[in-house]
Amino acid sequence: MKRIFKKKEMGLVILALLLMTVITSVNGSFLSPMNIINILKGNVILAIVSVGMMVVMITGGIDVSVAGIIAATTLVIGNFMVSVTGNPILAYILGIMTGTVLGLLNGLLVAFIQIPPIVATLGTYSVMSGMMLYLTKGAYINNIPQEFIDFGKTTFLNILPDGDGGVIGLPIQLAFLALTIVITWYIMKYTRTGRGIFAIGGNTISAQRIGYNVNRILVFVYGYMGFICGLAAVTHVSIMRQVDPNAFNGYEMKVIAAVILGGVNVMGGEGSILGTLLGVLLFAVINNGLTLMQVSTYWQKIILGAIMVFSICFVVIQKRRASKKHAKVDIA
Q1: pLDDT tens-digit profile of 84-140?
Q2: CATH number of the domain enclosing 210
Q3: Engineering a disulfide at 275: which of 44, 121, 245, 263 sits with its beta carbon 3.0 to 4.6 angstroms away?
């Protein structure tokens, strides 16, 4: 029991429960089944992308091009569905392939040309955003085929009471979050690549000396981030039922904030899927709670920014304290 309470994730759980209690005391509708479903559906894309960002940040890197990759992928699949078919399976295949290719481009720039991750991904984001605006002129794609719209409305486990005598189910989009979690968990826990990701975040030189191919792992990491962005892009279209080229402006900051709230070390080497999901939960609870309490959107940004800065400071201070406890041995 003591081990459980010592874990970083337990602090996030306690904080989330406290926030939920406070918000529910102010507005009882917070814990209503319909509001919970809305929170889940409204933050499923953030959760999917945050899991991928967690992997990138564990290596000590960062990917600020996620908004550009998602937006570019939504444009590709939107035009594909309008021009060819609204088949969900084909849309997901195309979306994942598009996102993976764009992610691999980031990986090649970071690994082989050795451009700092923030510079490389900022550059590709600018290119993708500019191309999006040039090709679309800011126009929406609204005529998504009915076949894909019907898919996006699908639910499962239709056993939850809606408060009006009926039942509601979980949105199909949550299944893709579950898929992302399972794949990422398996990679990080049971593969040599997953162990290499943590090793690179801890110390790149040491990772090379013990036999990890750092360049190959970095290409994989950014390619995997692209894969997840492609998955998120198609899932987003299934929710919104349209393509908005400007929908993801600044979205990378939300993702990074959620991951940092989840306890991922900005210096690399530390992070967990559970912590990341709890970070997304905190982000979702704070956003929804402030909205229910009718707090101005300007104050919402200020509060979220303050929490993110506090979280970064906490992680850095905690790591410094831990490093002071390590024994130092000089070898002549």
Answers
A1: 998 999 999 999 999 999 999 999 999 999 999 999 999 999 999 888 888 877 788
A2: 1.10.3470
A3: 263
Averaged pLDDT, 228-248: 91
Structural domain total, the chain: 1
What range does the domain containing 114 cover? 10-324
Residue 1 included in any domain = no
Does 330 fall in a domain? no
Q: Which two tokens stand for residue 211?
A: 């036999």
Q: Is residue 31 part of a domain?
A: yes
26 domain residue, yes or no: yes
